[in-house]
Specification:
TIM Barrel, 9-stranded parallel β-sheet, disordered N terminus, alpha/beta, 9 strands, 306 residues
């Protein structure tokens, strides 16, 4: 008996399936090639902003600094009368890590204020170096910043969450390390200087000890000026940071800005840091300021006369 053959699929259906499969595979290949060749944007992790002046470079003095050429700049009009351009006070922060730049305190004969961090290896040595070279000394008081990623020992930085008793104890301990200081300015402090309760404790302590306070102005929200006036505390604030950009050209430009501010208002306060390049540029630029009619004075003298 003959077996019946199963009917074969129509040729048109086979061709259609082959075409569909071919198109599908072609699409996959094109998609793969397109995805592989396409540039995907790199998403960077967000970086919290750091307020101006809230920078701490503990090992900066230990790094070799290449000599940089002197940068010419446009001077303001030359004044023939000494002091006619205004008074300028310069504070150098962050001393205490090293003695490497103490030689500049002898080489720069004009008044400078040396602001020293407490509890460091050379805190007391720097104070002695400054005293020998007739430079005014200050405490560079560590205060809490809005954003800070550096390591500090417990209870080294005064914070807004601390009890009044602990704040008073830290201030007393820091002041006791530097009995010859005449004033204080803040290290960091963008968060602390905006807190009235905290700053009232600190400034009352300074007034009681007969010290002045200079706000480093790491924040535009500082309440220090208001409280100092309320208490009758001798007070000043920073006008220009000299070395947020650590190049000779940038520091020289800041000196020009400093000169313009002093000429406009009659006085100005600059803050720099204990860095080789900064001290080198100060040594070069301070005589230039004198030739322009500016008088370099200690911060204490400036606060008395402004």
């Amino acid at each position: 008996m003959l077996k019946k053959k199963k009917p074969s699929a129509p040729q048109s259906d086979t061709k259609a399936a082959a075409i569909i499969l071919g198109l599908f595979l072609t699409g996959l290949v094109l998609f793969f090639m397109h995805s592989k060749g396409k540039e995907h944007p790199v998403v960077k992790a967000p970086v919290a902003p750091v307020e101006t002046g809230d920078m701490y470079l503990p090992n900066e003095n230990l790094k070799p600094v290449e000599p940089q050429p002197v940068v010419p700049h446009e001077p303001p009009p030359v004044e023939s009368i000494p002091g006619s351009g205004g008074r300028i006070a310069i504070i150098i922060d962050d001393w205490g890590q090293s003695l490497a730049n103490c030689k500049y305190l002898k080489e720069i004969t004009e008044p400078l204020a040396v602001s020293i961090l407490p509890g460091l290896r050379h805190t007391k040595d720097v104070a002695q170096c400054a005293e020998v070279n007739h430079k005014l000394t200050m405490l560079h008081l560590p205060l809490e910043a809005m954003h800070n990623f550096d390591f500090y020992p417990p209870d080294y930085v005064i914070k807004t969450t601390m009890s009044p008793d602990l704040v008073s104890k830290i201030v007393d301990d820091d002041l006791s390390q530097l009995p010859s200081i005449e004033g204080v300015n803040n290290h960091m402090g963008s968060k602390a200087t905006a807190d009235k309760n905290l700053m009232r404790i600190i400034l009352r302590k300074l007034r009681k000890k007969g010290l002045f306070f200079v706000d480093s102005m790491t924040s535009h929200y500082s309440v220090s000026a208001e409280l100092a006036e309320e208490m009758g505390l001798s007070y000043g604030k920073r006008d220009v940071f000299l070395d947020n950009i650590n190049t000779r050209e940038a520091i020289v430009k800041q000196f020009v800005i400093l000169a313009k501010e002093a000429r406009r208002r009659g006085y100005a306060v600059a803050i720099g840091h204990d860095r080789h390049l900064t001290m080198q540029v100060i040594k070069d630029e301070v005589p230039w300021l004198g030739r322009q009619g500016f008088q370099i004075v200690s911060i204490k003298t400036l606060l008395k006369k402004k």
